[in-house]
Amino acid sequence: MTSPEHPTHEPEHFADVVAGLPSLEGRTVAVTGSTSGTGAVFASTAASLGARVVLLNRPSPRATASAAALEAAGAHVVPIACDLQRFESVRLAAADVAEAAPDGIDVLCNNAGVMGLADVATPDGCDVQMQTNHLSHFLLTSLLWPLLAAASEARGEARVVNHSSGARRGAPLRAAYLEPRGGNLGGDGFPGFGKWRRYQQSKLANLLFTYALSDRMPEADRLRGMKSVCAHPGPTDSGLQAKTAGAGGTRLLDRAILRRTLRVAHSVEDGTMGILCASFEPDVDDGQFYGPAGRGEPGPAVLLPPERDPAAERLLWDVSERTTGVTDFFGADSAV
């Protein structure tokens, strides 16, 4: 049943965007978090355009079922276990991707995310939201860089696409959220701002990583067509809200945030337009940012102005390297 607070969200722009995307025959696309939400729409759309899709998900019955459903629909998919809350799982997944895609990865879409979770540590000691949303994607991108380079060498282009959020706006980046201090960051008492501040920091990290990666990319990779791009979905009925509520998002503040998002949200299909445009539209440039314009309103994905902060980008890169153990982002730490 629908209501003014929980309307039905039907796609408005999605079909037109997909109709304008090129064939992906002969391309391999990797995406994290494809069991539901924007990741599921992204994976099925990439497959419908002819891509071979590598599905990077934490092992679960839902991951198995979603891969099976895509295969039943005729998609060429390669499911690979990847738990973003464990750095060792990310390293093992990268090795599996290298074996499964020796001809390279044309697009790595760092889509997976969690939202509004309590102050708990991962097995690596990091905040669960920051490790899932940013740190493990930082590590995964480093490990898969040679596969991206191989694809750009062979086919003239490869892209890393990060998925930020309107929640990126807020406090400046702080190193503490990137360090292994999970469970000690606080703020979960009344009124409960802490979980949302940690989410905001992780989504800001996604955008800062895009710019930092662009600036640090080896010139040889840039010349062969490597690109670092970002998108945000706008307010989207993606299923994250239900997961937040299921994880204990029952405070008045939590309910208010989730209710407001769902009241103005667009469909999950329309929320996927940003990463689809960033990943597959022709003539996308390195360092660009796509998503609905405005502050928290739904709408079509458009090219947005840069949101640069060089000092925060340096901080993000340096602390992320230390926390993940990456010592040579573009070389020696790679999976191949």
Describe it.
The chain is an alpha/beta fold. It has a single domain, classed as NAD(P)-binding Rossmann-like Domain (Rossmann fold, 3-Layer(aba) Sandwich). Helix content is 44%, strand content 12%. It has helices at 14-19, 37-48, 61-72, 87-100, 128-155, 193-216, 219-223, 240-246, 252-264, 268-271, 273-280, 310-324; strands spanning 28-32, 52-57, 76-81, 107-110, 158-163, 226-231, 289-291, 302-304. It has an 8-stranded mixed beta sheet with strand order 3-2-1-4-5-6-7-8, sandwiched between helices. Helix 5 (128-155) runs parallel beside helix 6 (193-216). The chain is globular. The model is unreliable at 1-7 (pLDDT under 50). This is Short-chain dehydrogenase.
Helix-strand topology string: HEHEHEHEHEHHEHHHHEEH
Briefly note the CATH topology name: Rossmann fold
- Class in CATH? Alpha Beta
| Chain oligomer state | single chain
Helix/strand class: alpha/beta
Counted by DSSP, the helix tally is: 12
Major sheet attributes: 8 strands, mixed
Mean pLDDT: 91
Largest sheet, order of strands side by side?
3-2-1-4-5-6-7-8
Distance between the termini: 51 Å
Domain count = 1
CATH homologous superfamily classification? NAD(P)-binding Rossmann-like Domain
Number of strands: 8
CATH-level-2 architecture? 3-Layer(aba) Sandwich
Helix content: 40-55%
Radius of gyration: 18 Å
